[in-house]
Amino acid sequence: MSTTKPNGIEIGIYSLADIGPDPLTGKTISPKQRMDEIVKAAKLADEAGLDVFGVGEHHRLDYAVSSPAVVLSAIAQATKNIKLTSATSVLSTLDPVRLYEDFATLDLISDGRAEILAGRGAFIESFPLFGYSTNDYNELFDEHMDLLLKLNKNEIVSWNGNIRSPLKKAEISPRPMQKQLPIWIGVGGTPESAERAGRLGVGMALAILGGDPIRFKPLVDIYRQAGLQAGHSPDQLSVGVNGHCYIARTSEEAKEEFYPYYSNYWSYVNRQRGMGTRMSRQDFEHMASPETALFVGSPEQIVEKILRQHELYGHSRFLAQVDVGGLPFEKVAKNIELLATEVVPMLKKAMSQSI
């Protein structure tokens, strides 16, 4: 079965491959099992007709994936139609040539399904790991993005920067099956990042994990305005929304099942960032309320939240992170099923009626 895109909106899932204990059993799965389950989730998403599957990059022992291109290449062999994207590639500390060639290779392996979502990442451990200084945080990203876009457009590249060594008539191989790889920039909340994405004419993927969605509307406006001012056509300026998601038959069931795992997730993520805060049930209830951006509830509520955000942003892609906090795989699989068989058809119907 294949889901048609509701008025151009692609629906998919992504994983950051966090390895956390199940708060109900106390057991932590192995990196091998986590990897196997990510591939199984991608297969399920593909078979259910979802449009996109993404994998994130981290360089820590509590995450299973450091190389999205390698994992997505394995997934390419197990799937047929679903688009394969990083979520995100930490462009500041990746060599743009290596990144581009890896995803061009993935594109050939997958028959033209590869995409790159580039960002700065939530952690900075990749800087010392690959010999970079956090003092160059902004310049590295700008320079690497400039080079990545040139590599995407040209087979032979001459280029000069301030940090990376220059290229002189370098042959960039292989070339992807697609004419150019789709490239997105992940944006967390800064106007500068939104302006950059628009000016460069790449997609903007908003990470919206909570709060009122309306607070992200100015970023979308900045992005589109910067893109048009730079001479890009509106068709080039794609907006995506990435967010945490848990679906059950009823809202209460979803919140009851998800709270232990979501609280657990933020407990270990906050510890990773040097904070000791815990999420109370009251905090969670507020985060999951109908007017906020956290996608927790019945299929009908998920559709309502996507529609509200679509009214605000006019976005063309929604990616749900459905495997956080040590969730057992059977719950992840159920979420994928409900997203594909309940949310997508309702969303398509609602949007076709609003035309």
From TrEMBL:
<feature type="domain" description="Luciferase-like">
    <location>
        <begin position="10"/>
        <end position="314"/>
    </location>
</feature>
<dbReference type="InterPro" id="IPR011251">
    <property type="entry name" value="Luciferase-like_dom"/>
</dbReference>
<dbReference type="InterPro" id="IPR050766">
    <property type="entry name" value="Bact_Lucif_Oxidored"/>
</dbReference>
<dbReference type="InterPro" id="IPR036661">
    <property type="entry name" value="Luciferase-like_sf"/>
</dbReference>
<protein>
    <submittedName>
        <fullName>LLM class flavin-dependent oxidoreductase</fullName>
    </submittedName>
</protein>
<dbReference type="Pfam" id="PF00296">
    <property type="entry name" value="Bac_luciferase"/>
</dbReference>
<keyword id="KW-0560">Oxidoreductase</keyword>
<keyword id="KW-0503">Monooxygenase</keyword>
